[in-house]
Amino acid sequence: MSPLPLRRIVLARRPQGVPHADDFRVEPVNARALERGDCEVRNVFLSMDPAIRGFLDDRPSYLPPVAIGETVRGMSLGQVTRSRNTDLTEGSYVRALTGWEDVSLLQPGAVGLESVIPLPGIPLEAHLGALGPAGLTAWIGLHEIARIKQGQTVLVSAAAGSVGSLVGQLSRLHGCRTIGLAGSAAKTSRLKTLGFSAAVNYRAAPDLGAAIAAACPEGIDVYFDNVGGATLEAVLPLMNAHGTVVVCGMVSDYNHQDEPYAVRTLWQLVVKRLTLRGFLTYEHPDCIPQAQAELNDLVLGGDLVGLTSIYEGLTAAPTAFIDLMSGRTMGKTLVKL
Length: 337
Description:
The protein has helices at residues 51-55, 133-146, 162-173, 185-193, 208-215, 229-235, 251-254, 268-271, 288-300, 317-325; strands spanning 6-11, 24-29, 39-48, 73-83, 93-99, 103-106, 114-116, 153-156, 177-182, 198-201, 220-225, 239-247, 275-278, 308-312, 332-336. The chain is an alpha/beta fold and 337 residues long. It starts with 5 loop residues before the first strand and ends with a strand.
């Protein structure tokens, strides 16, 4: 049994729009007995991801919604402290979909459960960012879904976020011209230091379509969409014929899914003969070994840089998540326990 008091953060009420601190509550929790195949993990980092917002609404999604009074669900990276799973030894590190809690009890078949071997000289948090789900999502979206080719123009929205910042770097390293959309001058400036060919501050653009067109004079071959909504509407007419829209997320609608933005340019899918495809990273297990190997090499070689915004302590999780959903963070948003 752990010598420290254990806590979790539960959903106190369903958010209306942007989440609020009162939507969450801290509760004590007791250590639990392990059955055969279980392991106990002390979480080191909690991953704040826009997808969590969808779990907080009482609506169908690719995972069940979080019930009122239930632990808020999210990816984490932690260290095994007790184990009755022969594949997971005490002291080893794992990633999994767990909860906002000090300690998680993982059963066989837990979603996203995988062992993590920290790379020497690389911060542990990188295994939730460039070396973890964010990097794998960027790699699979570009290589498996878009099938990018050297010389193409790649546009990415939410480009200063955890996935978007890696999409831009990976496409540049593949020989593509990459343009990023972000929401502040500080973010667009940071993108340029990462090697983006151009960056557009969408909040400062009176005509977003015109600003994107100016940055993409030869059109767009691949649009890696993390935003949806009005941005998708502006991009579709600027796509080149037979281009691909990779739908990774639609964060512009996550805070108000009862009234999603009605995209008015979908006819361009026919006009331009476009492919628009959504994806989930874990549905491409055959790609992951190659993706992980390439990401490891790029990070170790200093060619791929992961941005992070790190908050301290379990009770900071709601604040970190609210800041993420309000556009105030950059790169991978994490809570360090």
